[in-house]
Amino acid sequence: MNKVKVLAVLSTILLCYWLVTKVVDLYALHPVFGAVYELTSLIVLLATFVLPIVTLVFLMKSSVLERKKYILPLIINLITILVMIFFPFLYTANQN
Known about the structure:
Elements: H1 3-23, H2 26-29, H3 31-61, H4 71-86, H5 90-93
Helix pairs in contact: 1-3, 1-4, 3-4
């Protein structure tokens, strides 16, 4: 598989992971989902910050004509970091 496709798929998976954890109360849904979230959160957190660096390395090592292919995974990575930091937990924001 192409490096760009792998980076785009991994970036999309990370974005979906953080969106699901911010929107859905996993502990109320089922205790197993909460446990899986806690087990995977550190790995996903590390991948969230390492993947943009890997994408930038591939971007710099590629030729000038291929550089535009790495823009999409990089944009998805940046959106993922913004979602992770600034997007509130919706299930706690609605409780008053």
